[in-house]
Amino acid sequence: MNKNYLEIxxxxxxxxxxxxxxxxxxxxxxxxxxxxxISLIGHSGCGKSTVLNIIAGLYQASEGGIILEGREVDxxxxxxxxxxxxxxxLPWLTVYQNVELAVKCVFKKTKTKAxxxxxxxxxxxxxxxxxxxxxxxxxxxxxxxxxxxxxxxLAMQPKVLLMDEPLDALTRAHMQDSLMxxxxxxxxxxxxxxxxxxEAVLLSDRIVMxxxxxxxxIGEVLDINLPRPRDRLSLAEDSQFNAYRQQVLRFLYEKQxxxxxxxxxxxxxxxxxxxxxxKSAPEAA
Length: 285
Prior knowledge:
Layout: E1 6-15, E2 22-32, E3 37-41, H1 48-56, E4 63-68, E5 71-72, E6 80-83, H2 95-107, H3 113-126, H4 142-155, E7 160-164, H5 172-186, E8 189-193, H6 197-203, E9 206-210, E10 218-223, H7 232-235, H8 239-257, H9 276-279
Parallel strand pairs: 3-8, 3-9, 6-7, 7-8
Antiparallel strand pairs: 1-2, 1-4, 4-5, 9-10
Helix pairs in contact: 2-3, 2-4, 3-4, 6-8
């Protein structure tokens, strides 16, 4: 993997209010490698979505900036595709047509009609939705809609896939497996927001833990050195998996107990003896 594929450098942002400007982020710095899976985690209001929107070009940073493959990010573009919490499918179009809309925006001048058709079907197959390509969003489940949203983003061949809590509670486990499968096949660079600690440890190469706002920043970055492919059932009893989980929960607990506390450096992960202690701690809010 190449270092500094995506560079977040000294990013800060303020939003105007009726009184003093609200500073959402302060001095956010992060280097992301090509093909890396990054999870952003933290309490509500810590600026996770703001970071994602700045990478997407939807927000402009007040200070600092984003560099992707040596070029500054200053507006939205197809090289950064966003999977939102809401699938955002057009209800009057079929599954195929929803993906086709994005593909034609990017590849209309470079792919033939036959190539476009094959490409759409390929990406629907990646998320196991090729069987439903002629159905409309109202005819499929919420989890299936989210799969179509992911296929639509993948079909744009983005350099970075940005995901804002894309997994719903009912289909979370199945979607996590699908994301790991897609990551294994395509090697996408992914930045994902999650509130689920187990999900962050399962999917990520690194977990970026945000301090509480206002003026939120990065508190800790935890490397997840678990071999891939990862199997959720095997990891449930894995001492290193649970040690990583405890590390994230400890950070979140400290921030909840004392929001103004300065983040301590990440301690080396020491395997825990059992899973029982880790189960007593709730997930991030």
